[in-house]
Structure formats: C-alpha cells, structure tokens
Amino acid sequence: MTIQEFRDYMASGKPVVGGGDVHMMFHKLSQEALQITAEINGNYHTPEELHTLLEQLWGREVPKTVGLFPPFHTDCGKNTIVGERVFINMGCKFQDQGGITIDEGALIGHNVV
Asked: Which domains are assigned to the chain?
C-alpha cells in the first residue's frame, strides 16, 4: 500500500480492520512518526532543519513559511497538510490518521490536541 492509497482509504470513511493492509500501513507510518518526532523533540534544530524534518514527517512539500516550536507529537504524520504562514506552538499533539488540513495563516497555540 502506498502512502497515497492509505490517505485515500482513510478519507473514505471505511472501517480499518485490525491486521489488514490499512492497519499494517498505519502501524508502519506510526513507527516512522515516532522516530522523526523523537529527533525533532530530542535535539535543537535550526528552522531550516525543522523544515526538512517536517517534510519527512508529513511526507510532502511543506511551505518555507511554516514554523514549529517543539515538542510536537503525531500518531501518523503522513496525513497532515499545512498552508503558508502556519505556526504550531509547543506541546501540540495531532491525531492525523484521518487527515488534518490547516489553512494558511493559522496560528496554533500551546498544547493543542
């Protein structure tokens, strides 16, 4: 299953069957997200380095104007879309397996879940 197939399935509203292809892909993506967020949260990174890590985490191009203050946590990572001039403050936790879209200019405060 590709990341896009996973995104499409999750957007369909169909159930995720334990042990099925979608569930196994979600588990794989969750492990990748844990690895990348551990790097984001465990060390200092310049804004440019954070941008690269966010592109790895979200699996897509991220606008250069997106900002993030760690720590940050997500359960999937590959189903988040952010627009220009988005800022995500410290302590946010995203449950994005079903998809999160943050439109341009959004400012997300501390500890938002």
From this structure: 3-108 (2.160.10.10)
